[in-house]
From TrEMBL:
It comes from Palleronia pontilimi. Pfam families: Gate (PF07670). Residues 141-240 form the Nucleoside transporter/FeoB GTPase Gate domain. The keyword Repeat does not apply. The chain crosses the membrane at residues 22-40, 61-80, 100-121, 133-156, 216-238, 244-262, 322-344, 400-421, 433-455. This is YjiH family protein. Keywords: Membrane, Transmembrane, Transmembrane helix.
Length: 456
């Protein structure tokens, strides 16, 4: 039987099949990513237990899978970008064909991975302080995370969950953050599905005439925080898995404070309130006149569920996500993280850049201030770097501070920054650097307070 649309009450006319497509995947996704469960001596989430199980029982297989992924990515990136490849746009070609910078990064990722695994090459590539941290710890965790996230995150983002919860939050978003109600959906997609997902969704909405340039820039630069699963990896990396919920709660609190402030001050207020050219429909239909928030959420969720992929297309999309994450992102992340760790371990460059922050952290009573200071600036390159630099610091409070900042700073050029610069929002490198600095200034004292007074 054909399904019909919902009325203003949100559910009339929806078939049992549509309700099932909304409720079953959404409940499964919420359970996987949001349900607290016991994990040893502490509490975690089912997603974290799955990652730990794979890494604890299949560590060798994961390590050599990483090697295969990075080497294949390097070879295919060169072939698809510069070789006599066929003109058809297949999945791998679509994800791996790119400019010289991305190709070089993937080649370097393969070189760094092979050098560490086989202990071949100079010490700065094979030492535990560089390759051991990046290849053996970070990337093996990310490989398992990407495998589960590729299939798990769509349960939250593709079947109505974000639309339902986003509608409930829509009026609060307009009042608190001076943003259209529909931005709550984008914000939730970022927090649950990943920062890149949120940024791409927001920029597409601007191109369609849904947001003004300022609104889109505000959403992208305020709510595109690293997703919950990535936060778990960062918490585990710095030895904070036992206080994960306190850590993530702190991230949400700081994100809320930044969201209150950032849309009201430069550089976001410098962006003009203008819509994209050749667009005309600017009506916010998140909540219709006379409609309750629950009814609006139900309507939007069921509308999304109707268009959601069936099981076969779900698997197909999951495989496509996995190919992108493994072959396009992982090798480049290896390269960026390794270069940063080599610079941090074998050169004083980050010490020089972060020197002005040392007396500030000392004044605030932060332990190991000199060791922690580089983490305040290196996150602009990549979100994992602060955690990689700070994971060996003895003070748990200081590691807590670093883990929060690595997420709360939000603007990192290896992913979010690159997407924003390529968008039509008019943001330049100066805007992004200033947003990074302002968010750091806002987040640091709050994180210090939470670490010292609330958590430890």
């Amino acid at each position: 039987m054909a399904d019909t649309s919902t009325d203003v009450n949100g559910s009339h006319g929806a078939s049992g099949k549509t309700w099932a497509k909304f409720l079953i995947p959404s409940t499964l996704g919420a359970t996987l990513f949001l349900l607290p469960v016991p994990g040893g001596d502490t509490w975690t989430i089912p997603f974290g237990l799955m990652i730990d199980f794979v890494n604890n029982n299949f560590g060798t297989l994961v390590k050599y899978t990483l090697l295969v992924v990075t080497v294949l990515s390097a070879i295919l990136s060169v072939w698809y970008s510069y070789g006599p490849a066929k003109p058809e746009i297949g999945t791998l070609r679509r994800h791996l064909r790119g400019d010289a910078i991305w190709t070089i990064l993937r080649v370097l990722g393969a070189v760094f991975t092979a050098a560490f695994i086989f202990s071949i090459g100079p010490e700065f590539m094979t030492s535990d302080a560089t390759g051991g941290v990046v290849v053996a710890t970070l990337m093996t965790n990310l490989l398992a995370l990407f495998a589960f996230a590729a299939f798990g995150l769509p349960l939250l983002t593709d079947y109505g969950f974000t639309e339902f919860v986003g509608a409930l939050l829509s009026k609060a978003f307009r009042k608190l953050f001076q943003l259209p109600g529909r931005s709550a959906v984008d914000g939730l997609a970022s927090w649950l599905g990943g920062s890149a997902l949120g940024v791409m969704l927001t920029t597409q909405q601007y191109d369609k005439g849904v947001y003004t340039r300022r609104e889109a820039a505000s959403v992208a630069c305020t709510f595109s925080i690293v997703s919950l699963p990535f936060c778990y990896v960062i918490a585990k990396l710095v030895g904070l898995a036992d206080v994960f919920f306190a850590y993530y709660g702190s991230v949400m609190l700081i994100g809320f404070v930044c969201a209150l402030i950032m849309p009201r001050i430069p550089p976001l207020t410098w962006i003009p309130q203008e819509y994209h050219d050749d667009t005309s429909d600017h009506t916010d239909t998140t909540v219709k006149e006379g409609e309750s928030l629950v009814h609006a959420g139900t309507r939007l969720a069921l509308d999304r569920a109707r268009e959601a992929p069936n099981f076969r297309n779900f698997l197909k999309a999951g495989i496509d996500n996995l190919v992108f994450m493994w072959f396009a992102l992982v090798p480049a992340t290896v390269a960026i993280a390794m270069i940063a760790m080599i610079l941090a371990e074998y050169t004083p460059i980050f010490d020089w850049i972060s020197a002005p922050f040392v007396p500030i952290l000392n004044f605030a009573g932060v332990e190991s201030a000199a060791e922690a200071a580089p983490s305040l600036v290196v996150g602009f390159a990549d979100m994992y770097l602060p955690a990689l630099i700070g994971e060996s610091i003895e003070s748990k409070e200081t590691r807590f501070l670093i883990a929060i900042l690595s997420v709360s700073q939000l603007i990192y050029m290896s992913e979010v920054g690159a997407i924003l610069l390529r968008s039509n929002l008019g943001l330049n490198l100066g805007h992004l650097a200033l947003i990074f600095v302002i968010r750091t200034i806002i987040a640091t004292p709050i994180a210090i307070f939470l670490a010292r007074v609330v958590v430890f």
